[in-house]
Design a protein that fits this description.
By secondary structure, the protein is α+β, with helices and mostly antiparallel strands. The protein is built from four helices and five strands, in the order E-H-H-H-E-E-H-E-E.
Length: about 160
């Protein structure tokens, strides 16, 4: 098997060759938080946002982003995801905003960390886009991997 690196023999960038890796069950969870004014969160929770159900739109955007990660991140593999779950939880306590958590799964030769991280980012960015007319000061923060399972490196969980 070739060495798992993004550099070829001459030092040029390339996609990692996973041809000889066994397909295994893999899972990754990532999160993001979009901080917003309490009034904005209330609008979302009460279903009174002028643009409708912004959580539903952000959920679909996150799923679509996970499926297209290879088109956004150079040298990422196109993956056949078997499951993408995007959970959006409004937080009415300080800090007010929406917590985004994404879980991606597949059986394959490479992990799904980038897909989960991309989906969390895009879901949060979609919320920003949908809410910016009522709240320009929103901030997206805390984008991070929470857990990964499977593959050669095994299980890792943020503590």
């Amino acid at each position: 098997m070739s060495e798992l690196t993004h550099l070829d023999e001459s030092g040029a960038a390339r996609m990692v060759d996973v041809t000889d890796k066994a397909a295994t069950s893999r899972e990754a969870r990532a999160e993001a938080f979009i901080r917003m004014l309490p009034e904005t969160v209330d609008m979302i929770v009460e279903g009174e946002h002028p643009k409708g159900d912004v959580l539903a739109v952000a959920r679909v955007a996150g799923i679509m982003a996970a499926k297209k990660t290879h088109e956004l991140i150079p040298l990422c593999h196109a993956l056949n995801l078997t499951s993408v779950k995007v959970e959006l939880t409004p937080n009415t306590e300080v800090p007010t905003g929406v917590h985004v958590e994404v879980t991606c799964r597949l059986s394959g030769q490479t992990g799904v960390e980038m897909e989960a991280l991309t989906a969390a980012n895009i879901a949060a960015l979609t919320l920003y886009d949908m809410c910016k007319a009522v709240d320009r000061g929103m901030e997206i923060e805390g984008v991070r991997l929470l857990e990964k399972k499977g593959g050669r490196s095994g299980h890792w969980q943020r503590t």
